Amino acid sequence: MVHVWPLTLRDGELTLRPLRLRDRSEFERLRERNRDWLRPWDATDPERDARQLPFTALRRWNEQQARHGWYLPLTITVGGRLAGQITAGPIQYGALRSTVLGYWVDHERAGAGLVPRAAALVIDHLFAEMGLHRIEVTVRPENTASLRVVEKLHLRPEGLRRSAIHVDGGWRDHLVFALTAEEVVTGADGHGVLARLNREFPPDTPMG
Questions:
Q1: Are 52 and 31 in contact (CB under 8 A)?
Q2: How far apart are CA 208 and CA 205, in angstroms?
Q3: Domain ranges of the chain
Q4: What is the pTM of this model?
Q5: Which of these, 62, 179, 201, 65, lies nearest to 124 by C-alpha position?
Q6: Is the pLDDT confidence value at 207 over 80?
Q7: Average pLDDT, integer, range 133-143
Q8: Which residue pairs, CB below 8 angstroms and at least 24 apart, start in 101-105?
Q9: Fold adopted by 9-200
Q10: Which keywords describe this protein according to UniProt (predicted)?
């Protein structure tokens, strides 16, 4: 297992990297512009209000968790501009060697294939570099865009968890999807999921 932080992953114009201090203005504008778009899918704490953590606190928490190897929080950027986030966590080692993947993207870039590519990059890194065995994604049944993402990535459906996660002010059902390392043929470059995705959906092909 090799855990590296800070971490940068790239595929063409797509770059995944840590949140930087100088990202604050752009990040806050992006979250505000997408507030209504993300509200139905954002996890919430039933004992606290739904306000987003202040940028400084969010970045500090991200850095602390990432340094210890407990989370892998990365921004999604295209041509140097912020477009969303993707996170793996909590990362469990030992006998489990698993994690849960979460993501969001700017509504203006939805359908462009950024999230499947970003997720493929992260999954390949988790399998090939960090030695994880299982990646899980949970999706609200109503979230058709995210269901399309797990379909493109060939994650297996594993059923429905009732009232699994507190989202948008209430306990919501979530569908569970998973992928294990044995289900991926990884090349010498460390890419397996991304290579398969690019074969089935070449980068210039619309992925909506």
A1: yes
A2: 9
A3: 9-200
A4: 0.95
A5: 179
A6: no
A7: 97
A8: 101/135, 101/136, 101/137, 102/137, 103/76, 103/149, 104/34, 104/38, 104/41, 104/42, 105/76
A9: Aminopeptidase (3.40.630)
A10: Acyltransferase, Transferase
